[in-house]
Design brief:
The structure holds two protein chains of two kinds. By secondary structure, chain A is mainly β. Helix content of chain A is about 10%, strand content about 35%. Chain B folds into two domains: about 90 residues, Rna Polymerase Sigma Factor, Chain: A (Orthogonal Bundle); about 70 residues, Winged helix-like DNA-binding domain superfamily/Winged helix DNA-binding domain (Arc Repressor Mutant, subunit A). The C terminus of chain B is likely disordered. The chains are: A mainly beta, B mainly alpha.
């Protein structure tokens, strides 16, 4: 029985066995589930846009007349596309870039911890060259994720204190703060996530994970504090990492439906403040865990494209309907568009030999042209577990959590700081810090608030 | 016939999909039980396979590749179940593969039973390649593609799996022999 011939015969018998097992009893349940499942549109799969590797193209034998028609149709399509691009570029011109240089101002949070794992955090602002450092908050909680309003007059941020996560808005000088929402959050790590201003500055979207169970909701709240926050999405859909389109008409986010599938979604903003938005999945993100997304989708400055981080570990640029995807960087995450929309900065993990304190999060900033060419690496190590790099409004600088020594501390440490995109100047390292954002307009730096400013950490 | 059903199901015809599902679910269920060695996880894997299949059918470009595509989804669903099982370290009693509720020749049933018992002794990777190639009838190239490994790796894995299967059957035969011969005294 155990001779080679016997086993081969058994396997052949097994393969050729005409016996088909009867359908199991749960077939009815499966069909009930599928009947209630909406099919994905054909264009919603990246794979569909990529040529199948095992398919060999045969030389065409179509008659010349058919070829002529195809040429005519192609020419018409090219003419139509040209017209759309010309007209579209006039309607959706990129945001004008304002030279700011070292005078640009950014806000960042000084997340610190001690040997017992307790942490504190306050909001600071500074000029790009590290001068005019000012502390704007001094509360006992962890204040983080400072995000400038589109007009550069206010800063939204999060506060985690005593098991509660609050979203607060204050003026750029640290005064006049208003708490917009407070949600339970059992740990600081459950109270993280970006804040997204609507382009007109009237509303703010934020994510919550109230019971810290790796489920996520998006909420929207008016920034004048006139009403309570509302759940942004229709029931059955979770969301994270939202971004408002520059024209304010659409909201992109990474979502998870009731079946557990994660995808890139876009919703029409409409009456967003009313909540309950229905959204459409534009790309499946197989292999992505919503609790650990490698960077969210971001609109290009002209609103015609989105960056998406795919499940296979690459940055893909797509149209808002999910069409025309193109991979611009492989093994890359945390993308960020330059203000002129011509480049994308991102993080890429380094070799294990370069890990900082053995942390696989250790990464470098990279910059690539938006068409996927001219990829170049910036020198300092960075903390890839921090959010995406952020561009200065004039596109000359990138801020982020750098792993660099400071003048006071020759040892490597994680410090919030600024690097020149062209690598021309040394980086500016400021403090231990988390996420930050640049003031989007040229404005006088506000006066220091009344309390004593903290000295930069060693 | 199947191509026609696939085309109709791609366009949203749920009745066509029900026929497709009915024709494939028995064999998928048996294959999942062989790979996962747990009827409940097998049911979860097959349900997930067919739900994903229905949901993503419009994205299938070539209806002639339906079987290979379905088996890829099936294997991913089985992998998910194996990951869960690994995390929870659940050991379950090995169940019967399926009840024989339709007429079947006795020798074919005996052969099938023999080999299916042998397969249960293999590790997950070996079970997978054996089931894909010999039970579901996938060409080795398609099996490799479904498993996400190079063809060469699939060949060597199949070779090792076949050797392990032979050893398992050998061991079963040795264990069964004294019983077959009966007690001596």
């Amino acid at each position: 029985m155990t001779q080679r011939d016997d086993l081969d015969r058994l396997l052949s018998t097994w393969l050729d066995d005409p016996f088909t097992p009867p359908a199991p009893q749960y077939l009815g349940r499966v069909l009930e589930r599928t009947r209630q499942t909406r099919q994905r549109p054909a264009w919603a799969s990246l794979e569909r846009w990529i040529p199948m590797a095992d398919k060999v193209l045969q030389p065409t034998t179509a008659p010349p007349l058919r070829a002529a028609w195809l040429v005519i149709i192609a020419l018409l399509l090219v003419a139509l596309a040209t017209a759309v691009v010309v007209v579209g570029s006039r309607l959706l011109a990129p945001t004008p870039v304002i030279p700011q240089g070292d005078a640009a101002v950014f806000a960042f949070s000084s997340i610190t911890g001690d040997s017992r794992g307790q942490a504190g955090g306050d909001i600071f602002i500074s000029r790009a060259d590290g001068t005019d450092l000012r502390q704007l908050t001094s509360g006992p909680g962890i204040e983080s994720t400072p995000t400038w309003s589109p007009d550069g007059t206010r800063i939204a941020y999060r506060v985690w204190e005593g098991g509660n996560d609050s979203v607060v808005v204050m003026d750029a000088d640290g005064g006049n703060s208003t708490t917009l929402d407070t949600t339970p959050a059992s740990g600081f790590h459950c109270a993280r996530g970006n804040l997204t201003w609507s382009p007109d500055g009237t509303n703010l979207i934020f994510q919550t994970s109230p019971v810290c169970d790796m489920t996520f909701d998006l909420f929207i709240v008016p920034t004048d504090g006139s009403s309570a926050a509302t759940r942004l999405l229709a029931p059955g859909l979770e969301g994270r990492s939202s971004d408002w389109s520059p024209d304010g008409n659409q909201i992109a986010f990474v979502g998870r439906d009731a079946t557990g599938s994660v995808g890139q979604y876009v919703a029409d903003a409409g009456d967003a403040l009313g909540g309950g938005l229905e959204a459409r999945e534009i790309l499946a993100l197989d292999g992505i865990d919503l609790a650990n997304i490698p960077g969210g989708s971001r609109w290009s400055p002209d609103g015609t494209e989105l960056t998406v981080v795919s499940g296979t570990g690459g940055i893909v640029v797509v149209k808002p309907d999910g069409s025309e995807p193109r991979v611009v960087a492989e093994e890359a995450f945390n993308p960020a568009w330059s203000p002129d929309g011509k480049r994308i900065a991102f993080h890429r993990t380094v070799e294990p030999s370069e890990y900082f304190k053995g942390a696989p999060c250790t990464a470098r900033m990279w910059v690539v042209d938006a068409d996927g060419t001219n990829e170049r690496r910036l020198d300092p190590l960075v903390d890839g577990c921090s959010p995406s790099p952020v561009w200065s409004p004039d596109g000359t600088r990138l801020a982020g959590a750098l792993i660099v020594p400071t003048a006071d501390d020759p040892n490597l440490g994680i410090h919030y700081g600024v690097v020149m995109v062209d690598g021309s100047d040394p980086q500016v390292a400021l403090q231990d810090g988390g996420a930050g954002s640049w003031q989007p307009v040229v404005a006088p730096i506000p006066p220091a608030p009344s309390f004593e400013a903290a000295a930069p950490s060693p | 016939m199947e191509r026609d059903l696939v085309e109709r199901a791609r366009r949203g015809d749920h009745d066509a999909f029900a026929l497709l599902a009915g024709a494939t679910i028995g064999r998928l269920d048996a294959a999942a039980r062989l790979i996962l060695r747990d009827p409940y996880r097998a049911e979860d894997a097959v349900q997930e396979t067919l739900v994903r299949c229905w949901r993503d059918l419009p994205t299938l470009r070539d209806p002639d590749r339906f079987d290979a595509w379905l088996h890829r989804i099936f294997l991913n669903a089985c992998r998910d179940q194996l990951r869960v099982a690994k995390r929870r370290s659940i050991e379950v009693e090995l169940p019967e593969i399926h009840p024989l509720s339709v007429p079947d020749s006795q020798s074919a049933a005996a052969d099938r039973d023999l080999i299916e018992r042998g397969v249960r002794h293999l590790d997950a990777d070996q079970r997978t390649v054996i089931v894909l190639h010999y039970y579901l009838g996938l060409p080795l190239r398609d099996a490799a593609s479904a498993m996400g490994i190079p063809l060469g790796t699939a060949k060597s894995r199949l070779h090792r799996a076949t050797q392990a299967l032979r050893a398992a059957l050998d061991s079963d035969a040795r264990a069964a022999r004294p019983m077959a011969e009966g007690p001596s005294g």
